[in-house]
Amino acid sequence: MIDLYVYYKVRLEDADSLAPRVRAMQMALAGERAGSGKPLLQRRPDSRDGLQTWMEVYPGVDQAFGARLEQAVLEAGLGASIQGPRRSEVFIDLLPEH
């Protein structure tokens, strides 16, 4: 399992209308993933040049989840409210030392 982090820029004027749409998409995806962690939606506390940086966090997903997520983003029409690309990062847990 992996933890998937997706970050992107959002215009300040789009933030209030985009947040519930992203959360609805996340909850729909969470329903498909029984047993994995709850998705998070976060943002940096500051804004720059009229843009906020947002982060979606998906803990405990499989490698194929990224493709399902991008399809869900397209189906939800979120791209029109996002400035620039959505960037993804994958992290795994460190194994304990023996």
Provide tags for this entry.
98 residues, alpha+beta, Alpha-Beta Plaits, 4-stranded antiparallel beta sheet, 2 helices, globular
Specify the CATH class: Alpha Beta
| Outline | globular
For the record, the count of structural domains works out to 1
Radius of gyration: 14 Å
Uncertain residue segments: none
Textual characterization of the structure:
The protein has 98 residues and is α+β, with helices and mostly antiparallel strands. The chain has two helices and four strands; from the N terminus they run βαββαβ. The chain has one domain: 2-Layer Sandwich (Alpha-Beta Plaits), CATH 3.30.70. Helix content is 34%, strand content 41%. A hairpin with a 2-residue loop joins β2 (40-48) and β3. The longest helix is centred in the N-terminal third of the chain and has 21 residues, at 12-32. The radius of gyration is 14 Å and the shape is globular.
Q: What does the secondary structure layout of this molecule look like, with pairings?
A:
Elements: E1 2-11, H1 12-32, E2 40-48, E3 51-61, H2 65-76, E4 82-91
Helix pairs in contact: 1-2
In short:
This protein is of the alpha+beta class and 98 residues long. It has helices at residues 12-32, 65-76, and strands at 2-11, 40-48, 51-61, 82-91. Strand 2 (40-48) and strand 3 (51-61) form a beta hairpin.
